Automatic annotation (TrEMBL):
Domain Aminotransferase class I/classII large: 39-375
Gene Ontology MF: a single term: 8-amino-7-oxononanoate synthase activity
Pfam family, one: Aminotran_1_2
Family: Belongs to the class-II pyridoxal-phosphate-dependent aminotransferase family. BioF subfamily.
Swiss-Prot/TrEMBL catalytic activity: 6-carboxyhexanoyl-[ACP] + L-alanine + H(+) = (8S)-8-amino-7-oxononanoate + holo-[ACP] + CO2
Record field: transmembrane: none
Assigned EC number: 2.3.1.47
Protein name as it appears in the record: 8-amino-7-oxononanoate synthase
Pathway assignment: Cofactor biosynthesis; biotin biosynthesis
Organism: Thalassotalea castellviae
Self-association and partners: Homodimer.
Xref: InterPro entries: Aminotrans_II_pyridoxalP_BS, Aminotransferase_I/II_large, AON_synthase_class-II, PyrdxlP-dep_Trfase, PyrdxlP-dep_Trfase_major, PyrdxlP-dep_Trfase_small
Record keywords: Acyltransferase, Biotin biosynthesis, Pyridoxal phosphate, Transferase
Length: 380
């Protein structure tokens, strides 16, 4: 029979407690979600700044629909690039102080679209070991050489770079790592890139909106990062993504990135709503301050035997290790009205299944204390 391996592999997933299933969420409101007629406190959302359902963003979306329509109706190189996209690109350039920006339909497609466009024989990619799947797939998609360095281990990266054999080198890292919540040392990476005549590419999916006084992410730490990508699907609370870079790379991507060329442009109404969200992010510093304050409270409220990876982001990873154990803890928390998805391999390395807690600006102190109290009970 054809494709017998499908059923075999699914059975194996079940056996190893790695079987993935979706849950249909009826509604997400503030820090709560509703599923199967039950209400839960949500600690798995990437809406870090609590902007989903913000009335001004909702209004901008409706305005965008009436002005430009829901669909862009074609790819950007045909007639899909509209005034709404142009405004958003300019806002992003000004915010991040970068010459050019280019919009994509998702972060996955932006990462894949950039790396596959650069993946020729004369290129080598140097990726942090914990890079997102889209970065790995993009890097491996073409003829470029690919080397992964140990997570945040810049000594190893430098040693490897000393032996580089190709002229075009791109160092790739995340600003804040998605599953660990820890941060790259942006200044160290930029220095290394400069010293070895490499470019630095940062995936700021989990930094944008959170890091920096106006939420600019990694460029607030070092303005000389060559290329920045971020998705709008996390703190920005819409969808789509952008790449910020210089003019030459911008034009190169428009000409050679297959994801950009052969895909319908993102919805102009969403671009319009995203522009409003970026305005709010820049001025609502209280949202970033609240995440920091609640994160401190969370760390203080956990039992001493529970270890969390240090971070200034919204993501707080508690490593449990075993798949089954992390699923059991997540189930116990669910019974207490807490939604906290257990993260298992292959999303994270073997033996590092974990609880990935996201603290958002729409949580309050009581929510955090309730979470910590129940994690303390569920883990010991
Ligand atoms: C680090 C990182 N990069 C890229 C992406 C992909 O972004 P998107 O969800 O917009 O495809 C994600 C998450 O989904 C992510 O965590």
């Amino acid at each position: 029979m054809a494709f017998e391996y499908l059923a075999e592999q699914l059975a194996q997933q079940k056996l190893t407690h790695r079987f993935r299933q979706r849950q249909c969420i009826a509604k997400q409101q503030e820090a709560n979600l509703f599923c199967n007629d039950k209400e839960y406190l949500n600690f798995s959302s990437n809406d870090y700044l609590g902007l989903n359902q913000h009335p001004d963003i909702n209004h901008a979306l409706q305005e965008g629909v009436s002005k430009f329509g829901v669909s862009s109706c074609s790819s950007s190189l045909v007639t899909g690039f509209s005034y709404a996209h142009n405004v958003l690109e300019n806002t992003l350039c000004e915010w991040l102080n970068k010459p050019k920006c280019l919009l994509f339909n998702s972060g996955f497609s932006a990462n894949h679209g950039l790396l596959s466009a650069l993946a020729c024989e004369q290129t080598q990619f140097w990726l942090d070991k914990l890079s997102h799947a889209s970065l790995i797939d993009g890097a491996l998609s073409g003829k470029a050489k690919v080397k992964r360095f140990l997570h945040n281990n810049y000594q190893q990266l430098e040693q490897l770079l000393l032996k580089k054999s190709l002229a075009n080198n791109l160092i790739v890292s995340e600003g804040v790592f998605s599953m660990d919540g820890d941060q790259a040392d942006i200044n160290a990476l930029q220095k290394i890139a400069q010293k070895h005549q490499a470019w630095l590419y940062l995936d700021d999916a989990h930094s944008l909106g959170i890091i920096g006084e106006k939420g600019q992410g990694s460029v607030s730490i070092n303005p000389h990062v060559d290329i920045v990508m971020a998705t709008f699907g996390k703190a920005v609370a819409t969808s789509g993504a952008f790449i910020a870079c210089d003019e030459t790379l911008h034009d190169y991507l428009i000409n050679f990135s297959r994801h950009y060329i052969y895909s319908t442009a993102m919805s102009p109404a969403i671009a319009w709503a995203t522009n409003k969200s970026v305005e709010i992010i820049q001025k609502d510093n209280w949202r970033r301050e609240k995440i920091a304050e609640l994160s401190r409270l969370f760390a203080k409220s956990l039992n001493d035997n529970i270890e969390m990876i240090p971070t200034s982001s919204s993501i707080h990873a508690i490593i449990v290790g075993d798949e089954k154990k992390s699923l059991d803890i997540a189930e116990k928390l669910k019974a207490k009205g807490i939604w906290l998805t257990a993260i298992r391999p292959p999303t994270v390395p073997n033996g590092t299944s974990r609880l990935r807690v996201t603290i958002c600006a729409n949580h309050n102190k009581q929510d955090i204390k309730y979470l910590a109290e129940n994690i303390n009970k569920a883990i010991n």
